[in-house]
Amino acid sequence: MTDPSDVSAAASAAGGFIPDLPDDIAVRCIARVPRSHHPALALVSRSWRSLLRSPLLSAVRSHLAVTDPPVLALNLRSPTDQAPWFLLDPLLRRSGKKSPPPLRLPPPPLPAIGSACAALGPALFLLGGSVAGVPSPAVQVLDARLRRWSLVPRMSAAREFAAAAVLGGRIYAIGGCLPPADAWAESLDPAIGPTGGGWAVVPSPPLIREKWMHGCAVLGGRILAVADRGGVVYDPVAPAGEARWGPVPPVLDNGWRGRAAAVGGILYSYDFLGKIRGYDLESNEWKQVEGMEKELPKFLCGATLANLGGLLCLVWEGKDLASGNKEMVIEWAGIEVSKTTDGKLQGSLLWQEPVVLDAPKGSSIAHCIALEL
């Protein structure tokens, strides 16, 4: 049950919440409490704990337009061929104390491998991927507030290991399909709804359709998608007479290694030398993020970056916290980066902590993306 109009019936069934206060009003009061206080609220009673974990509260918070800082959705590749998703909430961190375990999400309807992912508000879009060894055009969407998956209009082309991005409220899928496909690039407006429209082909020059993408970001109002060597830039609002597609700047291409994230107009990447570097579009150069040499380990295995509400979030595979541990351990850190007067990038570590995930040791990080709740 997720309709806010049914709050009273659901609350009464749970056994009531606040004495002498109608349950529907009580639920609305609880819904306004910041997410960081939910662990304490869960100690009040069994009915409160059940409410805090229910889709009902998420629906009420959405109805009341209650917002909190974003959470991090993390996807793993597992030796057991499973691909579990988790939500890591920075508000639930407890400095100097053991933080509560991250929430494990239900699995998507289709067990796809090599999907691309993009986020729009609380919605996580999984595009394509290989299902039973065959590339799929399926699009799976997770509502992080309700913690439920659904299927939306399929793409025009089947894809795996494509690039995905959100720009101007539209979801874009680029590459990952056979080169001859006319729908090598396409976009969807989720606001139209499943019955009002589907994927629209984004015209692209045939010469660029050989690209199989491994990285994607939005920078300066344009989509950047890179392959092993070379990449493309797409500008959806390019003036008439100018090409909407073009190559990425050589400096950007040469420095982009692995996963990257755009924060505050800077594209950040973790290189093979164990350095965090940022690409400045205005000066067309890579700059090392200074001040982190003594704050973080030298080499971060499987390092992944994300924009977490304006912070640069770094996630990597951690070390075992205890001998005999059979679960995966990751580390994550929040970094605030600012520009100095001489144009350098200065980093400040706000927090760093290990997290034990309900996944077997030997798993690896597949996706890391922020969702707004």
TrEMBL record:
PANTHER family: F-BOX/KELCH-REPEAT PROTEIN SKIP4 (PTHR24414), F-BOX_KELCH-REPEAT PROTEIN SKIP6 (PTHR24414:SF23). It comes from Musa acuminata subsp. malaccensis. Pfam families: F-box, Kelch_FKB95. Residues 105-355 form the FKB95-like N-terminal Kelch domain. SUPFAM superfamilies: F-box domain (SSF81383), Kelch motif (SSF117281). Residues 18-56 form the F-box domain. Gene3D superfamilies: Kelch-type beta propeller. This is (wild Malaysian banana) hypothetical protein. CDD domains: F-box_AtAFR-like. InterPro entries: F-box-like_dom_sf (IPR036047), F-box/kelch-repeat_ARATH (IPR050354), F-box_dom (IPR001810), Kelch-typ_b-propeller (IPR015915), Kelch_FKB95 (IPR057499). It comes from the Eukaryota.
